[in-house]
Amino acid sequence: MGRVSGKVAIVTGAASGVGKEDALLLAREGAQVVLTDVNEEAGREVARSIGDAALFVRHDISSEADWKAVIAATQDKFGGVDILVNNAAILAYGTIETTTLELWQKIQKVNSDGYFLGCHYGLEAMKSRPNGSIVNMSSMAGIGGQSSFCAYSASKAAVAGLTRSVAAHCRAKLYKIRCNSIHPDGIATPMVFNLHQDKSAPPAYVREKDPKQLQARFAQPQDIANLVLFLASDESKFINGAEMRIDNGYLMWAD
């Protein structure tokens, strides 16, 4: 217990799924947590369940003004920022042939622009602290690519590249701030399992139809939160610019 005691964390997309588990675990391990999301009702409920060590702020991560407001609220409430978990994202079907420019730009605005803004303002806030950790949620789609998620794959590859750039910058400047990315395969969250409601979804999506694939390819949100906690804590103080795969051997061939 107490692996992040005395630290202040911002977790985006904290109303449900992985972000919720991140916030709950960081709080249990001693952090004061600012939860952000566009879903105000659910986000406030998670914050209430944590208690005085939590604050909810409504937050569109693609908005620069919202990022400034979140950083200011965090500093006003808890005195600073030590941990930033860029977790919020959107997901939609679309191959290179079916993805429209409108869909492409919508996904990039949240998944790419939103993470850039988080790193930009989070890094600035952390410079006055003893040390800092930025954890960016990417995806195996950003490494291997997924044909059914063209824009999403590109956005998550951008997150990986952004992470490496931030890490290299912090090392060059001798900042005691680290930036790492996490690359899950599938995660059992509402965002993923609600994909079947998308009218553009393939008629037989293997991850939802094959029980063996469900077992092999879907992590639980808690599995991701455990890795987030490690990267947020001082236990990982020499890990910087890493692409942490949490995918049950997704890139390997199995007999």
From TrEMBL:
<dbReference type="InterPro" id="IPR020904">
    <property type="entry name" value="Sc_DH/Rdtase_CS"/>
</dbReference>
<dbReference type="GO" id="GO:0016491">
    <property type="term" value="F:oxidoreductase activity"/>
</dbReference>
<dbReference type="InterPro" id="IPR002347">
    <property type="entry name" value="SDR_fam"/>
</dbReference>
<keyword id="KW-0560">Oxidoreductase</keyword>
<dbReference type="Pfam" id="PF13561">
    <property type="entry name" value="adh_short_C2"/>
</dbReference>
<dbReference type="InterPro" id="IPR057326">
    <property type="entry name" value="KR_dom"/>
</dbReference>
<protein>
    <submittedName>
        <fullName>SDR family oxidoreductase</fullName>
    </submittedName>
</protein>
<comment type="similarity">
    <text>Belongs to the short-chain dehydrogenases/reductases (SDR) family.</text>
</comment>
<dbReference type="InterPro" id="IPR036291">
    <property type="entry name" value="NAD(P)-bd_dom_sf"/>
</dbReference>
<feature type="domain" description="Ketoreductase">
    <location>
        <begin position="7"/>
        <end position="190"/>
    </location>
</feature>
